[in-house]
Specification:
Strand order of the largest sheet: 1-2-4-3
Number of helices: 4
CATH architecture: 2-Layer Sandwich
Radius of gyration: 13 Å
Distance between the termini: 26 Å
CATH superfamily: YhbY-like
Oligomer: single chain
Largest sheet: 4 strands, mixed
Strand content: 15-25%
Helix content: 40-55%
């Protein structure tokens, strides 16, 4: 997967600013069901926020890296306990994709 350009990251962060977390991860970490839910959300929306409630910064960073690897998503940005993830859908859903719904923000 090619790394995102600075312009692409900026655009994704603008869109991500309006989003709410769709998945929250707790102490149990990354389970098979959570990975499936993340994959489904990424496939539908392409750009999602994930909230990680682990207190330890290193544990959060490790979990975010694990999520990225398990789902094939690119980490656009992390701020505190929130990670913004992007994965281009094979077939973009015009109704669900956050990139389509918030395209007006990047103009």
């Amino acid at each position: 997967m090619a790394a995102l350009s600075i312009q692409e990251r900026k655009r994704l962060r603008q869109i991500g600013h309006t989003l709410n977390p769709v998945v929250m991860l707790g102490d149990k970490g990354l389970t098979e069901n959570v990975i499936e839910e993340l994959a489904r959300a990424l496939n539908d929306h392409e750009l999602i926020k994930v909230k990680i409630v682990a207190e330890d910064r290193e544990a959060r960073a490790a979990l975010i890296a694990e999520i990225s690897e398990a789902t094939g998503a690119e980490v656009v940005q992390t701020i505190g306990k929130i990670a913004l993830l992007y994965k281009k859908a094979a077939k973009q859903n015009q109704k669900l994709s956050n990139l389509v719904r918030f395209a007006h923000l990047s103009n």
